[in-house]
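Appendix B: complex inputs.
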Amino acid sequence: MNPVKWFKVFNSVQWKMVIIYVLLLLIAMQLIGVYFFQKLEDTFYASFENDLKKQAKTLQEVVKYNMAPGTESDKQKREIDEILEKFPLDKSNTVQIIDHESIVIATTNSENSRKGQKNIRVNNVLQGNKESITEVIQKAGNRYMLYTYPIKHDGEIIGAIHMEAPMQEMYRTIRDINKILIKVTVASMVGASFLMIILARTITNPIKEITEQATIMAEGNFDRKVTVKSDDEIGKLASSFNHLAQHLRNALSQNEAEKGRLQSVLTNMSDGVIATDRKGRVIVFNRRAEEMLNKTIHHKEDINDILPRSHPIILPLTEERETFVELDLEDDAFTIIKITFTPVLRASRETIGLILVLQDVTEEEKLDRQRKEFVANVSHELRTPLTTIKSYLEALDEGGAMEEPELASRFLQVTRQEAERMTRLIHDLLQLSRLDAKNVQFHKQALQPKEILQNAGDRFAFQCRQKGIRFQLSIEDNLSRIYADRDQIHQLLDNLLSNAVKYTPEGGCVTLSAQQKRDGFVEVAVSDTGIGIPKKDLERIFERFYRVDKARSRLMGGTGLGLSIAKEIAEAHGGSIHMESELEKGTTVRFTLPSCEPEVNQP
Amino acid sequence: MIEHMKSLALVFLVTASIIQTLLLWYSSPSYQDNRITAFEDIPQIGHKDFKKHEIHELAAPPEILVHSKGKHQRILPSEAHQTLVEKLHHAQLENLNEITPSSARWERLINKESGLEFRFHHELPTGVIKGFFKGKETIPEEIENINRIWVFGEGDQNRVTIWLISDRTQTVTQATALIQDYKSLLNSAKQAGSTALLPFYKGEKPGLKKEDITEETIPRITYLPKKRLKVPHLTYKLEQIKVEHMKMILFRNPNYVKKTELSDQSFIYTELESLRNLRYDEKKKNMIYKNTGTESETSLPHVKELNTINAFMDRHNGWTGNYLLQSVEQDKNNNLNNYRFQLYVEGMPVFGPDNLPGFDTIRLVASQRVTEYERSLFFSPSRSEIKKPDYLPSAEEVFDSLKKQNLNLSDIQQIYPGYQAATEKKQLKLKPVWVVIFDNEKQGFLEISDTGRGTQWTGAKPNPS
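Resulting structure:
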């Protein structure tokens, strides 16, 4: 195992606990050992010294009579030698009897050569400076305790006993005890280490298990549980972890649900949404955004690569911004997208991302254009007859035309016609306005469509004959009754039939037909063989004031609102209207009306 | 931050543990440095031949006169002298009582009986004499000093009579004692004795008559040879004791002795702890050692003091020659006794030389311990290098010299043989002389003149009065 692995192994809490525990135990045992051995050594030392003191004291009681002042002699020295020989002394000790001049006068056999020598160590005792002297010296690798005790006679120091005792035995005993203690220490440390490993494992194993569980949880698996083996802190931790896991599981489920909902919302939003990180890389988008931009968006793709902008977005944005992008589609169609850039800010105002909301504002734009166009058309349509009326009235006023009654009559007729046209226009506009505002009071009632259609045919049969146009009425017999306002339906039919007559050349044919549809509606169709409408104008043909050929339409007295009114009436009755046309061949306008008693014919 | 602290604590724990383990592993119990030399050899300055084993050897009378029915011989310190002293030492005194011998008794004792007269050149206290005898018999306190011990009797069953004679108090204390083989001892003494000596009591005519002896006085007899007495002239090489050796001997811890110069070539060595000092005169080569730290109010008996002195001297073989107790002077101020020991060469006391004071004597003061020790640091070895024939003046020459000085025997305490010392080229020359002790304790020396004809005086003036 390489050092890094060893480091990893011992860097665990378990081994840290074991090492710390063992070291603390070791230090504690060392301190105890030091104190114990200090005390043990002191005790042994004191005992050893006391033993020597006892021996010296006893010996001095014996020899002091042989050393009384004035009694010194060789004989007495011999007697002292004999005393030393017979005295029950520890034979390993060396004993010297020293006279008052510090001279060794007798000694145990082992140190006869010392006789007659001066022992300087005993001076302090001989001079009475110290009651006794205890020293420890090192000699030949061994320690010796030197003990000097005075010999007193009649209260006067007459000599000294100097004892030299080897301390090997004492230190051997201490060493033996030391060995025992070391063995006990080692054994207890091994045992304690073993127990500590077990203890540490009981603590760290649940933690390890929790760690593994956390790792698994981090990978997304919340199903596993940590085993709760006890009711202590570790057990409570495991329980809390399981509880946490459960909560997380629930929270994640909720989050997933929320996410799903959010995804659903995103997916089904009419607006496109793109979210980026602070660097402008896409992190979230919905399908609508792709549709609106008409391109595939990828995660992490730069937003500037996605948006068709001439100038890239400079990130980060700190304020909300809006921009409009116009996308050119096929067939001269276009799409206008409004993009709202909203920065995602932290509390510290730091930008952490960007949300782009893409709104298709093409319809609004179109409506706006139509509105503007409508106003322009209305203005134009009103100004045109007014201008005509004004000019003719001015001509009349100048008097030239009045001199010619025919001319004046024609001028007045024209003026009347223009005023009528303006009246029609205003009438149509008001009707449209009422229809838009839903202010029209429909007096719906059950009507026989055949009757309505025949009446309309009757009204236009004369005009057709005048114009040399063949009029055909084709009505199915089993038409169901419709629930409609008679007048409104009349106007609807009038608008359609007048257009058909108007744009069908002589010799052409206008057909009014009706049939029962399977869905219960009654479909009425007005067909002509007129000039037809270009295909591109078909979509806008129901727009107000929309004309394929404005000049011709105006010339024919049209207000440009007839089809719009027809469409509004049809739709106000719950039906629909659409036009089919082929240029130079004719046009068919079909509208449906709901039956009064709807019958659904099953196929 | 806390984590760092924990890590530091862990590192500290590990380090502390390791350091503590190492410290404990390598630590050992303390002990005193043993480099100091604990034992010092004591220099032995003299020769062990001069060692005195017992007090009686030290306090032995230096002169023994063998009286044998009118014949008189002198035995000076020698093997025979030692034998006689030993015998006397073992004599156990009994029945002590003071007597007043009649003149007839004295006359009979000197002229007709046999006996041994042990003479001290100076009177010695009774306490010293007690030590001379082995027995425990108490000598009456009235007798303060003893000059002579006279042993006589027939020796029946070895019982003898002993007189303890005090010249100063003119008293005789009689005792009896058993001396083993007395008769043979006496015979041996006769054989070992010198040539016959003539007894002189009142004049130059030898001999002693009953009428000459005054009643109730103790006769003091001077014994001189009829002819010149052959005594060798000796020359010794002088040897010197190193003062450093004396330091080693006298101080308990010579390593802590301070040397101070007092005056020109005079030094004092002091050991402050033990209140000991040693004055050393380098010019005179003598020393005085004092141990003032051991003065005791109670003085010991003379015997014990002598024992203390002998033990003290034995430790360093301080007896550099044959020294015998010469005198004991009591210092009444200190209640101490000054013991003066005289050097004897070839059995005769040595005097001088004048330029080496203290060469001939050693002075010691002792109570519980030796408190004073005065001696010369010169000494002569035991064997003479040069021995020349020489003589002591005859009795006639002695009397002639006295006559020339208008002196007679009544002015003289003692006349005994001795050596007068002189130094020459680091040599000690010993000239045989008659030591004349006058009544006033002064002494003069009478020797054969350098020409060999006649005598000449040295030392004290012949007329000391």
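Chain A has five domains: 27-174, 222-268, 274-360, 370-435, 442-593.
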